[in-house]
Amino acid sequence: LESEIEELRSLGIDVDNINPHDPLIYTALSNLQSPQGLFQIEADTNFKVCQSVAPRNLEQLSAVVAIARPGALDFKDRYAEYVKTGESQSVHEFFDSVLNYTGGIPLYQEQLMKMAVKVGFSLDEAEQLRRIVGKKKIDQMPAWKTKITEKVGQLENPDPAIADVLWKVAEDSANYSFNKSHSISYAYLAAITVYLKFKYPQQFFLSLLKFTKFEPNSHEEISKISQELMDFDIKLLPPDLNKSDIDFKIEGKDVRYGLNSIKGVSEKVLKHLLEFREDSFENKYDVFTAAKQAGVNIGVLSALIQAGLLDSFVTANRSQLVLEAQTFNILTDREKRNFKALGKEHKYDICCSIDKAISEELIGDDNKRIFSDRRINTIKKKREPYIEILKRNRKSIKYANWYFETQLLGYSYSYTIRDIFKHPEDYQCSDSVKMAGVRSEVRCVGVLVDVIKRTSRNGNKYARLELHDEKGIINVLFMDSNRESRLTSYLNAGNKLPKKDDVVIITGSKGDDIIFANTVNTLKDKIYMKLSQVK
């Protein structure tokens, strides 16, 4: 967070004088749909608590931070109701003045201390109780139960219920209570990030994108950010060899993808890339030659083609262009020189040129056949697997480009996952699924990011699937029930559950926040990116 804020400072944004009570913050939080990059909010559990509570001020945002933890989550609905109605639930009127501002819920360790002081304990004793509770020193708790009973008995109007309430709060607090000093500080930082995101979204997202390279799964983070950018009318522009810098950068009202985030591109290769793009190219052969001279090996060049970096230089089917690059790379320097001379005549199609050179026994600039009989066999043998990759990938150019981009960049700028199908309108996106009514029939497609197979307490098998598309998450439950054994029948028919990264098609009925699957189908078509995948 500190590094990201420093990045925003470098972009000229005053991050040191933000008012954490600014109405913009709580307007944004009241209908929050974009949690990425928000301190203490972006985690799934915290985000759901924030959505449920819809905090209207810093105090309530502090409560969100405190509630979004094991144990305290039990208070989520109760606190959300308090925020909505303003009506606090009293545990005992004696403690109302201490607990009213959290709706009657003892959220904080400081509240426990105030309750202890109110019954007669000193501040030092209250701090001892807080430490015992905070560090879960179970063996010391019984002695405090006696002390509490004795203190309450010394009150002017002693009520045994006061002791019971305080003891229960002390006992339960070990499972959920939090330092308010911490939660209000966290809430302050959360408010700052909300303000920055909704006041300066372009700069905020640029900062997030620049720091994805430090995440364990940088492309997963880029994917999440690209989904949110649409909500702010900002595009994540694709990497372009002519336009991209090493890192992400602002371009107009959008953000341009950084070269250092392309999968498999090292710092050393980046330097070569910058040298490579200084050249001017009249045709594909110039591109292939310059890449070799700049030290960009054929594997990296193929990945750059697949990611679309050369689209501004060469208009072609990317899988076809990879085949041409790989084929050109097979040639000797003499062969390359001769094919360059023949390039214009054959529209710089190296595959066509080679076929003609073989069939017509073309003569080179040294008055010898370009290919000897022995060399022809070698060329055919080396080209064969690359031609096989093209044959497999050309079934669907859309699917191939979508797959290349998601694998190499973390997102696809050319197509949505629905676009890879002949009739994309037949599938709902995650946004549409969320808006669908309960029990309505849905049909959707997504990339599987997680699958868990379990058996319920009553013996029914079930599988939880989490799918992603360009709009968000689709949660699916594929299960047996007392009426129908859908999952068991599926497995008994010889099917296997889909694996991570599979493209999965789901039909089923909508629950509150999940799809109950009727059918689960995995897209069988595969896209191939390198030689090792077809061997």
What is the strand tally?
8
| Major β-sheet annotation | 5 strands, mixed, barrel
Strand order of the largest sheet: 4-5-6-8-7
Cα-based radius of gyration, to the nearest Å: 31 Å
Q: Report the total helices.
A: 23
Mean pLDDT: 91
- Low-pLDDT stretches are none
Helicity range of the residues?
Answer: 40-55%
Class per helix and strand makeup: alpha+beta
Task: Tell me the strand percentage band.
Answer: 5-15%
The shape, in one word, is elongated
Termini separation comes to: 45 Å
Question: Can you lay out the helices and strands and say which pair or pack?
Answer:
Blueprint: H1 2-10, H2 23-30, H3 44-53, H4 58-67, H5 76-85, H6 96-99, H7 109-118, H8 123-134, H9 141-153, H10 160-176, H11 180-199, H12 201-210, H13 218-229, E1 236-237, E2 249-251, E3 254-256, H14 267-276, H15 284-293, H16 298-307, H17 318-330, H18 333-342, H19 350-359, H20 373-393, H21 397-409, H22 430-435, E4 441-455, E5 461-469, E6 472-479, H23 486-492, E7 503-510, E8 515-522
Parallel strand pairs: 1-3, 6-8
Antiparallel strand pairs: 2-3, 4-5, 4-7, 5-6, 7-8
Helix pairs in contact: 1-12, 2-11, 3-4, 4-11, 7-8, 7-10, 8-10, 9-10, 11-12, 16-17, 17-20
Supply the key terms:
535 residues, alpha+beta, 3-stranded mixed sheet, 23 helices, 8 strands, 10% strand
